[in-house]
Design brief:
Largest sheet: 9 strands, mixed
Low-confidence stretches: none
Number of helices: 13
Helix content: 25-40%
Strand content: 15-25%
Mean pLDDT: 95
Radius of gyration: 23 Å
Shape: globular
Distance between the termini: 25 Å
Oligomer: single chain
Number of domains: 2
Length: 415
């Protein structure tokens, strides 16, 4: 069962929250962060992308960069740009995109729950990316950015959240670079804090939706600190890391699409003939075609859109991984026809989040940069949770969650 706790959040004063808050560290590069932070010394990018305080081209993994993160983190506290709450709270963080709002509880997630599988993952992590975030957590002694969890639907928690969100939020703004609304409330009633802790203790699992590397890094640093502390009790702050937990029924996974640089020596006609062995192919013309259901794909090639419907012998409904559209397309199109064996390392393929729209696929093919684009029907939360529950791992680049969590609304210190 899941263990969580409230914590004394470190937060920006209400009047400067929009100056502090930023996009997550991993959704933009150093140049973009430098541009967004220009003229704003309060931007969280100075902590999560501190290479922007060095000359352009500075390696973001340079030891001086990590040291700068810690220096800037302390500066934000000294200047009153981040102020720690007097008592432990849970928090509510709401995001609104395209008229739909999702409400998350900000909690301290338990490090041993990650280690023993109560916190379930659905993606593999890379050790180099883990180590980068571990260095950042170590040097700052804090979880600067939250991870993104889903939890099984819970009516008791829905009631608590609804009661608090009927009040005026502490933060309420529309972010300039995504256009999404971000709202934030403090849960400070002791009884509601007890209810939240109790309801999570009934849950057999929490699910990482987004932030696998941050989750791994936070948990591993917590475990390191426990091992190093001769007087370790188990209730120290480093035993917990910051997560925003949303009910699964509020979350939407959007499509995560593929573009490929060449046809592996085939002509467009030969390529389509090869695809027809395992898919029903329909020419949809020049108008953008979006996949309509599971096992239906959209292909853009030589100025035309095609509907591809996987034939029944291409998947097994009893295989939680094999039934995924990303598996079907990877095996029968990317591997067998285009010769792309490893989605993580092959330089001929790139991935486009569905937030950019199918027009982005068309643009990249029409420009000549890519030769063919493949759009997939989104994975469902049920599929994600089923795969995590069975201990399986999804293929690379399967899920894309939007909106992304805004960083800097609250920070969790490990001391």
């Amino acid at each position: 069962m899941a263990t969580i706790k409230p914590f004394r959040g470190l937060r920006p004063p209400q009047d400067i929250v929009e100056k502090v808050a930023s996009r997550p560290y991993d959704v933009l590069n150093s140049e973009e962060a430098r541009e967004e932070a220009q003229g704003n010394e309060m931007s969280l990018y100075h902590i999560i992308k501190p290479e922007i305080d060095f000359p352009e081209g500075t390696d973001e993994h340079d030891p001086r960069v990590y040291a700068k993160a810690a220096e800037n983190f302390q500066k934000f506290q000294d200047n009153g740009w981040l102020v720690q709450d007097d008592k432990e709270h849970y928090y509510i963080y709401a995001q609104t995109m395209n008229g739909k709002t999702q409400y998350g509880l900000v909690v301290g997630a338990y490090v041993p729950d990650y280690m023993n599988g109560v916190i379930k993952k659905h993606e593999l992590t890379r050790r180099d990316k883990e180590e980068d975030r571990m260095k950042h957590v170590r040097v700052c002694n804090a979880n600067i950015e939250p991870v993104f969890f889903a939890y099984p639907d819970n009516k008791t928690l829905d009631t608590v959240i609804a009661r608090h969100t009927a009040e005026t939020p502490v933060y309420d703004f529309i972010a300039p670079n995504d256009g999404f609304r971000h709202q934030f409330w403090i849960i400070d009633q002791d009884e509601d804090i007890r209810i939240i802790t109790r309801e999570f203790a009934k849950m057999p699992a929490l699910y990482i939706a987004d932030g696998h590397h941050r989750s791994a890094a936070a948990a591993l640093v917590g475990a390191e600190k426990a091992k190093e502390n001769k007087n370790h009790r188990g209730d120290e702050e480093y035993n917990f890391f910051m997560a925003v937990c949303f009910p699964a029924n509020q979350l939407t996974i959007i499509d995560y699409n593929r573009v490929v640089k060449d046809l592996n020596g085939l002509t467009p006609q030969q390529f389509l003939q090869a695809v027809e062995k395992h898919f029903i192919v329909e020419d949809k013309g020049a108008e953008i075609y979006r996949p309509q259901h599971l096992h239906n794909f959209s292909l853009y090639l030589a100025g035309r859109w095609y509907s591809l419907t996987a034939k029944p012998d291409t998947y097994n409904n009893n295989d939680p991984i094999g039934v995924l559209d990303v598996t079907i397309s990877s095996h029968y199109i990317l591997d067998k026809i285009l010769g792309i064996k490893d989605l993580r390392s092959d330089k001929r393929i790139d991935f486009v989040g569905g937030i950019r729209g199918l027009g982005e696929l068309k643009k990249r093919v029409d420009s000549g940069e890519m030769q063919v684009a493949l759009a997939l029907y989104p994975v469902s939360m049920k599929q994600l949770m089923d795969i995590a529950d069975t201990g399986n791992i999804m293929p690379p680049k399967t899920t894309w969650f939007e909106p992304k969590l805004r960083s800097g609304l609250v920070i969790h210190k490990l001391i």
